[in-house]
Request: fold
Amino acid sequence: MKLSILDQSPISSNQTAKEALEASVKLAQAGETFGYTRFWMAEHHDLPGLACPAPEVMLSYIGSQTHHIRIGSGAVLLPHYKPYKVAEMFNLLATLFQGRIDLGIGRAPGGSAEATNVLNDHFLESVWKMPDLVKELLDFLDDEFKTDNAYAKLSASPIPVTSPTPWLLGTSKKSASLAAKNGMAYAFGQFMSDENGEEIIRHYLDSFQPRKPSGRPHVILTVSAICAETNEKANDLALSSLIWGLQKSKGEGGFVPSIHDAKRYSLSELEKNELEKKKRNMIIGDPVEVKEKLQVLQTTYQAEEIMIVTITFDPKEKIRSYELIAQGCIDK
Reply:
C-alpha cells in the first residue's frame, strides 16, 4: 500500500508555534525513514492552534532536511494569489529539490473572514474564477503561457528540469470535475467531507481528460487516522483531537489539549453524540484494526494512495502512530 502524510502543524497546549513547526520537520524526516511517499503541508490563516500560513516556506526548510520523500502543499489556496507567483515559487522549489515537488491547490479561504478579506479584497470573485486560475497556473507550469503580445514570452522562472506535479484538492463533485477536465491528479479530503466520496472519485475517473499524451488519473484519499499499540490507547490519543475540534467549532479556539484535559472537558449529550459521529469518520485502533480499515477504504474508493492526517497532543505519539501504520501497511 502506498501511504503519505498530510501535516497541519497543530500547536499543542504545551508548545510554541516554533516548536510545532519543528515537530513538522521531525515528522517529515520520520516519514521518509518509514517509507511514506510524500509529505504535504497545509495552509491556514488566523486559526488558533495551527502554525503554518505559508507551506512554500516550510517546504524549502523541510526539503533541505530530507533526502528523497516528495514534499508538497496540501494546499496552496489559489484564490488568494496570482497563478504566476505560485508557479514561480514552486518552480523554484522544484529547481532546488528536483523530482520531489507536488503543488496541491485548493479554493477554500483557509481562515477567518477577516484574514480572507486582508488576503484578497475580492475572494468570492476569485473563487468564481477558479477554473481560469487553474488553467493559467498549468500554462505557467508547462511553460506555455501566452501573453497578449505575440512576440513576448513570459516564463515562471526558473524553469526546473522536472516540473512540480499539480494536484487539485477537494471534497466535492465540482472539484473532481475541475481536476478531471484539466488532466490533474486529484486528492479527495474524506476526513473533512460528508459527501459521497465513492461517487465523487468515480466521477473523476470517468471524466478524466489527459492534459498530456502520457497523462492518466491519479487519486489520493486523505483520511484521519490514529494508531497505537492498543485500541484503548488509540482512543485516548484521539480524544485530544476530537475535543480540540469541538472547541474550535464553539469558537473557544486554543491549542490541542492534553489527554488529561480532554478527558476532563465537560460534554453535553448533544456534544457526546457529535463526537461519536466524528469518530466514525476517523480510523482509530491498533495496527491490525487500522490496516484492515485502510485496506477497505483503498478498495472502496479505488485510491492508488492514501494520505493520513494525524493530530495528537504529543508529537512523539504522532510519529509512533505513523510508524505503526507504516510497519503494517507500506510495501517494502
Remarks:
- The first helix runs from residue 17 to 34.
